[in-house]
Amino acid sequence: MSNQDVDVEQQVTYEVTDGIARLTINAPEAGNSLTAFMRDRITERLEWASADHAVRVVVLGAAGERHFCTGANLGGPQQPTPAKPEGAPDRVLGDAARMIRRGWQRMVAAVLDCEKPVVGAVNGTAAGGGAHLVLACDLVVMSETAKLVEVFVRRGILPDAGGAYLLPRIVGPQLAKEFMFLADDVPAARCAELGIANRVVPAAQLGATVDELAARLAAAPTKALALTKWLLNRSFESSRHTAFEEEAAAQELLTSTEDFREGMTAFRERRDPEFRGW
User: Is 42 helix (H, G, I), strand (E, B) or coil?
Assistant: First the structure.
């Protein structure tokens, strides 16, 4: 194992207990900004969680009290790239777009496509790509002191990491333009008003609130949640006809699961179901 691999394992930790996978950004001294290696580890762990039947829910959190994720760590180590021919410029047309597609877009897509619910535990500032990591989560719990910042325009760049896709679907196009044009801080209370955050709690209660929510999701029928998430994420791109067809097909698939049979049996027997996740 290389030193870089060891560093990344310390900077992005992953552990599974009682069906809950805890994926934690652990670089508070750098504002929990992500190097390319950290970003790719988050992506890989989310993809792993989808395939791991011991995982029923993912909690995406961060160490420290000030920052959830402040975007990309541009000064950190970068992934190697192919050598360029003699005389080629440092950046060739297509390089930047490829970097975004394979990097932050891939990570945000891994949150959206994860077959388990992803709960964002937002302890502090989520800025730039970090804000979009929050927007991609299925449920969001924020500390009262947390905030989102669409910081891109302050740096003379446009929002990436899927932000222009995600934000208007939550708050509408006019507010999305305001947040992205002006780059003002959006405090946790405002995030709750707009539907970005499901819960806003005192900092001291963030862990307990997230744990309670995660435990409820871990006890739920995992495949039913996965298909529900898929239908909801598809809804903005689907016609009514397509949405209805996909709903029917998803329900058909679900009837083959053990959790479906357990839910129906428990209903008939007038007892609480005991779902296993498959």
Answer: helix
Nearest-angstrom CA–CA distance, 278 and 263: 12
**167, containing H or E segment:** helix 163-171
DSSP state of 139: E
**Cβ contacts of 258-266, under 8 Å, gap ≥ 24:** 259/221, 259/222, 259/223, 259/224, 260/221, 260/224, 262/221, 263/221
pLDDT per position as a tens digit, 171-203 = 999 999 999 999 999 999 999 999 999 999 999
Fold of 3-80+92-218: 2-enoyl-CoA Hydratase; Chain A, domain 1 (3.90.226)
Amino acid at 125: T
Tracing tokens 């891994």 back to the chain, one arrives at 110
pTM value?
A: 0.90
